[in-house]
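Our preliminary data section would be incomplete without showing what the modeling component actually yields. Below, a chain of 401 amino acids is followed by its predicted structure, encoded as tokens that our downstream tools consume directly.
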Amino acid sequence: MGILPYADRVLVSGAGPVGLTIALGLARRGIPVVVVEQEPALTIDPRAGTFHPPTLEMLEPYGIAQQMVAAGIPVRTWQIRDRRSSAVAEFDLGLLADLTPYPYRLHFEQFKLTPLLLAALEREPNAEVRFSTRFVKAEQDDAGVRATVERDGKSETIDCRWLIGADGGRSGVRRAGTFNFEGFTWPELFIVLSTAYDFAAHGFAMNSYLADPEQWIAIFKMPGNGPPGVWRLSFPMDAATSEETALAPETAQALLQGFISRPEPYAIEHRNVYRLHQRVATDFRNGRTILAGDAAHLNNPVGAFGLNSGIHDAIALIDALDDVWHDRAGIEALDRYGAQRRTAAIDHVQANSIRNKRQLEEKDPDVRRRNFEHLQHVAATPELARDFLLNSSMIASVRRP
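Predicted structure:
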């Protein structure tokens, strides 16, 4: 017997890209949905901003991909470089033009995606978004979930048939649902800097990874506030560095001047620092509570898999929950969602992001030389390059299930 006659709706915790995508997809399938977000408005998080071809394909039916492409920067070629030897391996996503209408990486900031999703969701009559509303806890039984949220210092209850945790790496839903979150935290800090200086003048592609045994760099050209855009650079830093030191203006100048020295200081538009994690929940479903996105898995950013895999979770969960809700499938559809997305997180996102990071920071000079000889051979061989790009673009991980 249920705790009460549960409301016929789904509760989504988190109004980030994953939570809003899930809510929009469910609402379009005729499933009432409520989104709660503890922040008073959509957050501005400049970290993520690279979208792979399958992600754009998944967002196209909602009219979102078209808006992203119109405002973003398509990056067809990207590079892996050796910071010390100047060796370069360049990959052309045009090799996949027969497989996808988006044969490129689209650079488009995450905080520009969420307003597009929210605007579409607000047009759905069976959807509601509540900001300044923090998920606190939940009780569940075989019939549904009673969630406790806090708004303006007061507790409220929201009853629903399903609770979805899309509330990020510090997910309250994951903690409340006693999900195990296995993995590790990298020892370094990670600092992200944005500047208008044009690194293309030095031969860098709009997406470049620079390997170095002491300090590798990831480089991205982002739309920013419009042409000419901004360049975003990410550096690892010693874990003993305090956050105050990491975010100091002189630290940012030292990092950029150490990369490309110039007589005048860099104009730095943004600085951010965070830690890197590699973790995956042992289960993506516990009763009527389901996880997606960073709530379910975290990875380092080398390869730009995190946000993309979260949206892949969202699309898979929309399909599974739609079938269960409309009695086209039993609970096994949600178990299949969890199994498939957990496998993708472990076998693709975790495996590739860990390998990518370790290759960038490899210290053995002979191993580094062999790595680059191999990468250059792959890049110069169309058949090998195509296979490499199928994997790095996440097309292979989406096809696998």
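The mean pLDDT is 95. The chain is about 35% helix and 30% strand. Preliminary results of this kind motivate Aim 1 of the renewal.
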